[in-house]
Amino acid sequence: MAMQSGVASSALATALEEVEQRYRDRNAESWALLERASAVMPGGNTRSSLWSDPFPLYFVSGEGCRLKDADGHSYVDLLGEFTAGIFGHSSAVLKDAVSAAHANGINLSSHNTYEVRLAELLTARFPSMDLLRFCNSGTEANLMAVALAKIATSRERVVVFEKGYHGGLLTFGAASAKVNAPHKFEILPYDDVDAARALFAAKGAEIACVLVEPMQGAGGCRVGSRAFLAALRDLTAESGAVLIFDEVQTARMGEGGLQKRLGIIPDLTTIGKFFGGGLGFGCFGGRRGLMERLDPRRPDAISHAGTFNNNTLTMAAGIAAAEHYLTAEKLDALFDRGEALRSRLEALFADRKAPYTVTGLGSIMNIHGAAADHGDSARLLKLAHFALAERGYYFASRGLIALSLAVGDTEIDGFLNAMAAFLDESAAVFSSVDRSA
Ligand SMILES: Cc1ncc(COP(=O)(O)O)c(C=O)c1O
């Protein structure tokens, strides 16, 4: 389905056609698998964000920072499961933790010791989390946090931001919201202090909560300014609304997440992804006074059920992940490695005068095409995506890179060399593209 607008420069269109044809030729087995899947899943897809035109790759295995696809190609995995795969693939530590939990019985039909340990580890690291509860996904964590805020404040309005992504039912990008949970959303521009102030001035007494990513992940790795996040902290505190930081992605920015790095402490925090040690996971936590509303000993307790909330396999994997991988030292080193990669990419684009930019923070970043025409920008990104895949480097078709701990200097140098070769080879194509101002 054509999603792009505008008239492509003919050199860009031709280059894209050629690289796309080579992609089709190289990936016949992935195409055949999609055809097979399409008989039993709509469009062969069960996770919308994985779709990419003309068809996504099917992978058969991963080890460390390497992936192998169905056609036998090997890739350096620079996507790291959209940030969830921070450990790299086939970690023996995680495998042993899950195996030991599995050998000990599945889920045990009651409270278990794993959940206590994981809750202790997580509340100890996030400044905002006095108490927490587990669930099964980041989406669910955000849905629960918003519900809790609405009940606790007896207010209805939920403030979110353009291009925000808090899960499949809380999506505020361009092409999204039909399946969203039916809250009274106020959708504000991101990183716009004046817009937030104006809304609070007009409707502050009706606002239950503000749900915000300190850096928008799926929205293109846009980093919220300190001033913006601090203003949200002040506005919510003054008006009695609940500030919710969605740190499902940004929790990797340091041991206590981005909140600790910034020194801005929300009322509630949601996390997910890597804290499940590679298994499905979500968690919301925050101020004691708020979270205590979920205490089942209270006559007015808010119910929050879920068969797999405390499943022993995820809890055990989460403990191993927190203890062995998500340590302050490793997360700080990963942050620095990401910062270094992003500035080297920026320098490469600037040196070559290539029509690309890169945004992000720490180990999460997004490459963007930078043409005057939106359609050309999308084509430029697609060109880079195919060209780098051809050279053995895999990142998301939307330009997302999320480094895992398994990606080393060799892979980063290799990626930058491959990018430089692609940029050099495409210089004539780029010179035909109308640049953004
Ligand atoms: C910031 C953010 N919040 C929430 C979610 C939803 O998490 P899940 O996919 O586990 O439901 C995601 C997933 O990408 C995310 O990036």
UniProtKB/TrEMBL annotation:
SUPFAM superfamilies: PLP-dependent transferases (SSF53383)
Listed InterPro entries: Aminotrans_3 (IPR005814), PyrdxlP-dep_Trfase (IPR015424), PyrdxlP-dep_Trfase_major (IPR015421), PyrdxlP-dep_Trfase_small (IPR015422)
Necessary cofactors: pyridoxal 5'-phosphate
UniProt KW keywords: Aminotransferase, Pyridoxal phosphate, Transferase
Cell wall biogenesis/degradation listed as a keyword: no
Pfam families: Aminotran_3
The keyword Transferase is annotated on this UniProt entry: yes
Gene Ontology MF annotations: transaminase activity
Gene3D superfamilies in the record: Aspartate Aminotransferase, domain 1, Type I PLP-dependent aspartate aminotransferase-like (Major domain)
PANTHER family: GLUTAMATE-1-SEMIALDEHYDE 2,1-AMINOMUTASE, GLUTAMATE-1-SEMIALDEHYDE 2,1-AMINOMUTASE 1, CHLOROPLASTIC-RELATED
Family: Belongs to the class-III pyridoxal-phosphate-dependent aminotransferase family.
Name of the protein this chain belongs to: Aminotransferase class III-fold pyridoxal phosphate-dependent enzyme
